Amino acid sequence: MNELTLNGQTARFAEGETLLDIASRHGVEIPTLCHDPRLDPAGACRTCLVEVEGERLMTPACARTARGGMVITTENARIDRHRQTLMALYMTDHPHERESEVGSPDLLLDMAARFNAPTDWGWMHPIRDVREDRNPYIDFNAETCIACARCVRYCEEVEGVSAIALVGRGSHTTISTVDEKSLLDTTCELCGGCIDVCPTGAMNEKLPLMRGQKPERKLQKVRSTCNFCGVGCQLDLNVDPEGRDGLGQIVKITSPPPGATTNDGNLCVKGRFAYDFVHHKDRLTHPLVRGSDGALHPTTWDDALQRAADGLMGVAERRGADAVGFVSSSRCTMEENFLVQKMARVLFRANHVHQCAAT
Ligand code: SF4
Ligand code: SF4
Ligand code: FES
Question: Is the pLDDT of residue 349 over 90?
């Protein structure tokens, strides 16, 4: 174990840790925008600069590997001045009215306010190319992009897809695809991870924008488990309690932060975007059983389960165990699938049990 000095305190660290890793572990907050614990450090946004004793220039804490004996300062007047100046520069071509936030939170605006950055350093009219993309899920607003490349790095390093890239030079630098194709014509898997990692809300989910729904900050997050497969990814339903005439409406789905749950901040296309079914008018809201008239009638869960149990038991008693079979689903959890096979084998003495993931 090596040691360094962090804001006057001795801090131990393991080989390979960055200054940001050590600070986080010791409860010292350093602001970041382009950092993501799942990605290789890029040192792109310069918000995390700290001082190392004996070095003339400040260094990005997210990208600097620690060495024994370093003396690090994360808060002083010079660092404050740097953060304020940096934010003021960002604001010269960033919409700085809070009303401009329509979907995902713009953390750059939060940071500019927190560091009391001047917003009157002039305004540079947006010069980045604006392009339409017919994909149904992902919206990109070049005006609020700070070219931190977090989305690009996520797409490459976590998804292994490389559908998007930084293109253009200097102030024209923006996010695009090869030959400016629609994401639908690239290798994009529509995982939406680029939306999730974007610190400024430049990447956004299209549907809530098109529907004019409330921005993410005005929604309530409700943690839930994705039910599209048995992996059990955790997701946050972003709910507008006033939606659907006060019944509540899921406006979008986001992933919990990296490191918080087993899916480590990642979701697939279904988990992130396929949520409209929850409020679909054709969805069954009560169990139905077929009556003697041949039609389906609403009933209670107790009654429906009893009817199903009686029917299955009746077949097994009349025809023997080989006459019944059970098919479970990969959408169920491992525990539920275990219970299905246990019910088949112990209760019905039947070995005809299958699950779709087994084929
Ligand atoms: S949706 Fe996923 S695969 Fe497509 S560009 Fe974004 S991160 Fe890459
Ligand atoms: S779209 Fe967002 S994540 Fe991607 S480079 Fe721009 S600001 Fe960074
Ligand atoms: S968070 Fe370190 S440079 Fe962006």
Answer: yes
Ligand 1 touching residue 350 (CB < 6 A): no
Taking residues 255-268, what's their average pLDDT? 96
Residues 6 or more apart whose Cβ sits within 8 Å of residue 267: 191, 192, 193, 196, 226, 233, 235, 253, 255
Residues found in the chain: 359
Res 312 pLDDT > 70: yes
Q: In testing the pocket of ligand 3, which one of 46, 82, 153, 200 has its CB within 8 Å of the most ligand atoms?
A: 46
For residues 77-88, give the mean pLDDT.
Answer: 97
CB of 75 closer than 8 Å to CB of 31: no
Confidence band (pLDDT; 50, 70, 90) for 45?
A: very high
Q: Is 108 in the pocket of ligand 2 (CB under 6 A)?
A: no
Identify which of 191, 230, 183 has the alpha carbon closest to the alpha carbon of residue 328. 230
Residue-level pLDDT at 24: 97
* CB-ligand 2 contact for 195 (6 Å cutoff): no
Cβ 349 vs Cβ 322: under 8 Å = no
Summarize the confidence of residues 314-338 as an average pLDDT: 92
Enumerate domains of the chain plus CATH numbers. 2-75 (3.10.20.740), 119-210 (3.30.70.20), 219-279 (2.20.25.90), 288-358 (no CATH)
What is the pTM (predicted TM-score) of this model?
A: 0.90
Residue 16: the pLDDT is 95
The one-letter code for the residue type at 183 is L
CB neighbour list of residue 76: distance below 8 Å, 6 or more residues apart: 51
